[in-house]
Amino acid sequence: MNAEPTLADDEARLADIAAELDAALRVHVPRWLAGQALALAPAIDPAVVDDAVTTTMRELTPRLTRVLTADVDAGAGSPLATIREATGRLSAVLVESGARPVQRDAFDEQAFPDDVFALGPASFADIDETLQEPGLMWGAARAHVHLRRRREATG
Q1: Based on the number of CB atoms within 10 Å of its own CB, is 146 exposed (0-12), middle (13-18) or buried (19 or more)?
Q2: Which of 5, 51, 83, 115 is the most buried (most CB within 10 A)?
Q3: Where are the domains of the chain?
Q4: Residue 77 φ then ψ, to 5°
Q5: Is 34 exposed, middle or buried (0-12, 13-18, 19+ CB in 10 A)?
Q6: pLDDT over 80 (residue 155)
Q7: How far is residue 34's CA from residue 46's CA, in Å, rounded to a whole number?
Q8: Model-level pTM?
Q9: What is the DSSP annotation of the chain?
């Protein structure tokens, strides 16, 4: 007879999912950032893009890890918002290269006024399709742990 998972089991599962998503983001985000830059400015020096991506990832990686591993009650934010906030360096490189800002809708212009190249991902699949499922699993596991804690606290 299988026992129902405990809260500790659910928290451990969330930690495993977070570690898997963190590792996958470390692989896919740099590729995605470089691809975005090269698509927007095909004549840009790839070494300049690599430098910008490397610097961005050096700053972004610990922030992503903090968000993904934060206690569910800490309100640490979302990984997608963290990635969106980290696109400034690449945007600056694109501006310096003469890349033209892209057409954006009114919502994007208002919500993300500094993202003139629409670099910020709206979903994990925008970065890489293989990230969609682990990203959704992380969010669901996080919500589950949060709700379970509330349920167990109130009896």
Answers
A1: middle
A2: 83
A3: 7-154
A4: 100, -165
A5: middle
A6: no
A7: 8
A8: 0.91
A9: -PPPPPHHHHHHHHHHHHHHHHHHHHHHHHHHHHHHHHHH-TTS-HHHHHHHHHHHHHHHHHHHHHHHHS-TTS----HHHHHHHTTHHHHHHHHHHTPPPPP--HHHHHH-TT-TT--S-SSHHHH-GGGHHHHHHHHHHHHHHHHHHHHHHH-
Residues 6+ apart with CB under 8 A from 143: none
Summarize pLDDT for 79-94 with one digit per residue, the tens.
999 999 999 999 999 9
Distance CA 64, CA 19 (A): 11
CB count in 10 Å sphere of residue 120? 20
Could you give the maximum distance between any two Cα atoms of the chain, in Å? Answer: 65
